[in-house]
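Appendix B. Worked example

We walk through a single record from start to finish. Start with the input: the chain for MSMEG_0569 family flavin-dependent oxidoreductase, Azospirillum cavernae, length 418.
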Amino acid sequence: MTKATHYPVVVIGGGQAGLSVSHELKKRGVDHLVLEKNRIAHSWRNDRWDSFCLVTPNWQCRLPDFPYNGNDPKGFMLKDEIVAYLEDFARMVDPPIREGVAVTRVGRGKSGVLEIDTSTGPLTADHVVVATGGYDVPIVPPYAHGLDKSVTQIHSVDYRNPDQLPPGEVLVVGSGQSGVQIMEDLHLAGRKVHLCVGPAPRSPRVYRGKEATEWLMEMGYYAMTIDKHPQGEKAKEKTNHYLSGRARGHEIDLRRFARDGVSLYGSMAGIDGSTVRFADDLATNLDDADDVYVSIRRDIDAFIDANAIDAPVEEPFVPVWQPQDTPLAVDCAARGISAIVWAIGFRPNYSWIELPVFDGRGAPKYDRGVSPVEGLYFIGLPWLHTWGSGRFLGVAEDAAHLAGVMDARRNARESVAA
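Next comes the structure step. The output line below is what the pipeline stores for this chain.
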C-alpha cells in the first residue's frame, strides 16, 4: 500500500475560493497543497452558456490582492473575460496545485490526522479546506422521466445557445438567475419561449441615478453577517435575486416579457406524456418578486432621505401586465414545444466527506467556515459569513479568516510541542 504523503493543509477545489485560501496561506508561510479535479476556472469555462456574463458589476471582483483593474469597472464581464480574470489571479498566486486530481474521500484516520483519498493516491493533512462550492448535482425532478421522448430535455448546465436546441418552441423551467437569462437569450434569438415562474425574487438594476449594487454597498448590505440577517440561517436557503448584466446591465421584469410574447405559467407541477402541468401560483410568484423589488427601492429611498443625498426621484412601480386565465396544463406536441430547459438549480454532493459535520438536512455546519470537526473548513458558500461570501466580493475576507485560524492553530500546536 502506498504510504500517504502528509501536508499541513490540503485545499480541495481550485476555483476562486480555493485559490484565495492558497494565496492567504502563502502570505503566512503555511505549507499546503491545492487539489483540483479538472483545471483552474473549469466551471466558468465549461458550465456556462455562450452569452453568459456577471450579474454584479466588475468593481465587485475583489479577489485578495487582485481587484478588477480593467477599464470598465461598471461593466459586466463576459464568460471568457471571467476565465481570463481567474487565470490571471492564479498566475499571481502561483499556488502549489495539482490539476486533474479528484478527491474521493475525506475521513479521520486512527492516528487522528485527516485522510484524503484521491485519484492519484492517498494523502493526510492536519487541516482540510473544502472549496468545491455547492453546485455539484443538477436538479431535475423525477417526473421528468415521464416526458414524451419527442421533447428534448437539457439542464441549464448543458445549455450553450439557441441553435443547440431543435426547431420549435422552448419551455424554460425556473425563474432564478439562470432561468430568466436563458429565457431572455432564447427570446432575443427569436424563439417562442414559455417560462415556468417560481418564487425567486427580483432586484432593480439602476434606481434613482445609481446602480442598485452601489447603493447596497454604501448601505452595508454586502457586509451584513448571517447572524444579523432578519431571517437568520433561513437566508442561506433563499434564491438569489434575478437581474442581468447583459447589454450593459438591466433589470428583468417578467411582466414585460409576457407583454412582449413570452408565455408565463406557474411552477411546474408534473408531467404526463407530452403534457406538462403547472401550479396555480403565477400571480402570487410575480407579486412576491415585485414586493421584494419594491422593498429594495424603499430601502434605498430611506437611505437617501436619512443621509440627505441629492438623487433624482422616480415614479412608483406599476405592473405593466397581469396574468389572466393562465393555463394549468400545456400539451407540448400540440403547442410545438420541442425542448425543455431545466433551470431549477443544483444540490451539493458531500457524500465523500465521512465526518460528522452535517445537519439533519445534509448541509455542512460551520461558524465563518470553521466546522465543529477539528481541522475541517468550508469556503465559497453563500452566506458563509456575509451576503458577499459566495461572490467575488467577499471571498477574500473569508479566505483571510480561515488562513488566520489555521495558522494560529498551527502555531499553538508547535508551542505545545516545544
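Two observations about the output. The first strand starts at residue 5 and ends at 12. The CA atoms of residues 196 and 265 lie 5 Å apart.
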